[in-house]
Amino acid sequence: EDKVVQSPLSLVVHEGDTVTLNCSYEVTNFRSLLWYKQEKKAPTFLFMLTSSGIEKKSGRLSSILDKKELFSILNITATQTGDSAVYLCAVEALGHFGNEKLTFGTGTRLTIIP
Amino acid sequence: DGGITQSPKYLFRKEGQNVTLSCEQNLNHDAMYWYRQDPGQGLRLIYYSQIVNDFQKGDIAEGYSVSREKKESFPLTVTSAQKNPTAFYLCASTLTGDIQYFGAGTRLSVL
Question: Hey, is the C-beta of A100 within 8 angstroms of any chain B C-beta?
Answer without folding.
Answer: yes
